[in-house]
Amino acid sequence: MRDALLIALPKGRLFDVTLDLFGRAGIETDRAEISSRKLTFPDRQGLYEFVALKPADVPIYVESGAVDAGIVGSDVLREFDCDLYEPLDLRIGVCTLVVAAPAGVTLTGQQHLRVATKYPRTATRFFAERNAHAHIVRLEGSVEIAPLLGLADVIVDLVETGRTLRENGLEPVEQVARISAKLVVNRTAMKTRNAAVRTLIASLDTVVYEDS
Amino acid sequence: MNGQSQGLPAGFRDLLFEEAEGRRRMESTLAEVFRSGRYREIVPSGIEFLDVYTRGNQVISERAFKFLDRDDRLLSLRADFTPAVARIVSSRLSGAGETFRIWYSGDVFRRVEPRKGGYAEFWQVGAELIGRNGPEHDCEVINLALECLTAIGIQDAAVHINHAGIFRGILNSLHLTDAARGRLKSEIDRKDARALATHLDDLGVAGHIGEQVRVLSRCIGTPDVLMDAAAVLEDGESQMAITHLKDVAAGLERWRDRITFDLTEIDELEYYTGVMFAFFSPTRRSTLGMGGRYDALLRAFGSDLPAVGFSLSMDSVMEGI
Fold first, then answer.
1. What sections of B175-222 are H helices per DSSP?
2. Which of B192, B266, B279 to mutate to test the interface with A (most CBs of A within 10 A)?
3. For A65-116, how does the pLDDT look when each residue is reduced to its tens digit (9 = 90+)?
4. ipTM given for this complex
5. How many CB pairs under 8 A join A and B?
6. Which of 55-84 (B) contact A at CB < 8 A?
7. Is the pTM of this model over 0.90?
8. Rounded Cα distance, B15 and B13, in Å
9. Which CATH number belongs to the domain containing residue A104 in this structure?
10. Do A201 and A153 belong together in one domain?
11. Does residue A190 sit at the B interface (CB-CB below 8 Å)?
12. What's the pLDDT tens digit per position in A44-57?
């Protein structure tokens, strides 16, 4: 049995804010360790080991038990239908998943829509719930240029400030979901490492909700 | 064409030599444990009408490998053992007042999401005790499962025990629509205490019931947690469930170091009717097995018999042996 709880962190937009949050919760990591090319890096007290993964891979590692817990955006969780616990909303990486269309275009619900997105399942579900007929085009990135180039009529994508949308002549027309980072925990680890998991939840909860 | 004829579909594998021999040895050991417990073996058919699974557990039937027979009836590869045992007992063995102690060993087939890399065929060994009610029979089955795990060399197996009646009592007292009940169950299952409190507020659930749910979310540990729960629960069904678990605790005294009472889990599918349990090992990444009392299942097959059973996921059990 490994002693330290193994936690997956998402590379990319959430990485620094997550480490910062852990730091405020007294779970401190060493920058030099992180940038060294080792697979995992520990916190100073040795209670936790961290591994940095592509955000979309975090749920798979957590669900399978390869790691005990992870931090991942709720956009990724919705997309992958994961069998795990989500005990804490970390209220970081807050943004919105929206339908965005070229300025001036209104959605009547009757058009046949071509939708470009990195979230095909979420988008499919969203339009199906509205009985709108949507043809989903799955892209890996730079979704906002798809309408400009005529690949799609609208997009479903994350919006933080709305600047990228505006620069590409798009505006949000409907909210799909509010997104933030979540702590997720493997179902077996929650049982076999219950005390350690509860300590982690309590440490993070204290700093996330200290003002409320 | 060549690639197809020499490979296997995603989710499947062959067991060669050592792996096959290891499985054979383990099965022989388990057969001996069942024999000494007076359980008798059955080998259910490898194919059932799909209907057998939809009567049992909707989620499993959705994942079943389905196909049509010559009369266009929907068939399924064996996706679970328990519904097959229920069918067999109801159609071929049933008699009021009788008790059946049955065990089985074999493969079940469930479609997997390829992305997750899981197996679509996996080995299960399990047992069912049909026709008997009461905590002493729940204990018999939990005891049998722990003996099985010990016999095959898992000395650190632990069991988490719960009762479906605890949350069912609370949910029934709220008189929610099916949709609202479903949403509340998945909210409880997520284990986000803050989101759950907000959700209960939004539903207009009275504060003292919210408090019960909050206390239950911490009830995981020694039999003391049964006292903690009993101190706040008000619903009659929930209280009876706690009393039942106290009897189970008394009946499993010999395993006291291996038992955790875990009232934090909800049975989202509402498949279990009484005690429910899961087996873990601190040295294994997956659940070793699970089980519980499912008195409604045999009724779905036309015979009103109580039943309790367990199944072990042998792939998790064999990890690291």
1. 178-190, 193-202, 207-216
2. B192
3. 999 999 999 999 999 888 999 999 999 999 999 999 998 887 776 678 899 9
4. 0.92
5. 49
6. none
7. yes
8. 7
9. 3.40.190.10
10. no
11. yes
12. 999 999 999 999 99
